[in-house]
Amino acid sequence: MSNSPIQEAITKKGMSFDQYLETMHDRDRAKWEDSYSKVSIPESVEKILSVSTRPIHIVVFSADWCGDSRFGVPILAKIADLNPNLHLHILDRDENIELLKMFKMNGETRVPTVVIMNELFEEITRWIERSALGYWIRYQTKLKFADKDKEEYVNALRNLLSDQKQDLIADTISEFQALLTKAIVIVNTSSKLNHS
């Protein structure tokens, strides 16, 4: 049986969170480490994710220059730290663009793209770019500043995202929890996987 393209990419180029940090320039690494240090996973999420008894692969296409990656990937890393059956594999977007094209959203590649897979590297579900709240904030800001210049819009968005950072973290954790809970239930109850 041949490996899937994702499995091959992970084998050749996949990185843990710490390995990924080592590829960054010091300034970028410091920002990512700061993001990671500020994430606190609620105990209720820890309890739910602790029931995973089979391997789940969390494959993340990321770019160190991307603010959405810098926000979301450290949250996933903290979540993956909760259970040894949650395997986080980070693939650099620029080195894996052809593979990333398999997971387009609205016709475009975006980062981070998170693909949650079973132990056979079959896709269960995915999450792309940011949480629903993150999209909503950007949409509302764009509407409000439609007739303003780009710099004014960017500054307003940056301030609003900063003001709502804790809500954005909670929303992102909640979305990851929902997707991983779904994956855990599917994997733990799959007759295909339980008999392999």
Structural description of this entry:
The protein is 55% helix and 13% strand. It is α+β, with helices and mostly antiparallel strands and 196 residues long. The protein has one domain (5-194): Glutaredoxin (3-Layer(aba) Sandwich). It has a four-stranded mixed sheet with strand order 2-1-3-4, sandwiched between helices. Strand 1 (56-62), helix 5 (67-80) and strand 2 form a beta-alpha-beta unit. The two termini are 14 Å apart. 30% of the residues are buried. The model has no long low-confidence stretch (mean pLDDT 94).
Unreliable residue stretches: none
Number of domains: 1
For the largest beta sheet, what order do the strands appear in spatially?
2-1-3-4
Shape descriptor reads: globular
Per DSSP, what share of the residues sits in E-state strands of 2 or more residues? Answer: 5-15%
Count the beta strands.
Answer: 4
Instruction: Give the helix proportion (percent range).
Output: 55-70%
Give the helix/strand class: alpha+beta
Largest sheet: 4 strands, mixed
Q: Helix count?
A: 10
Radius of gyration: 17 Å
- The top level CATH class name: Alpha Beta
Order of helices and strands: HHHHEHEHEEHHHH
Spatial gap, N to C terminus: 14 Å
Oligomer: single chain
- The CATH architecture assignment turns out to be 3-Layer(aba) Sandwich
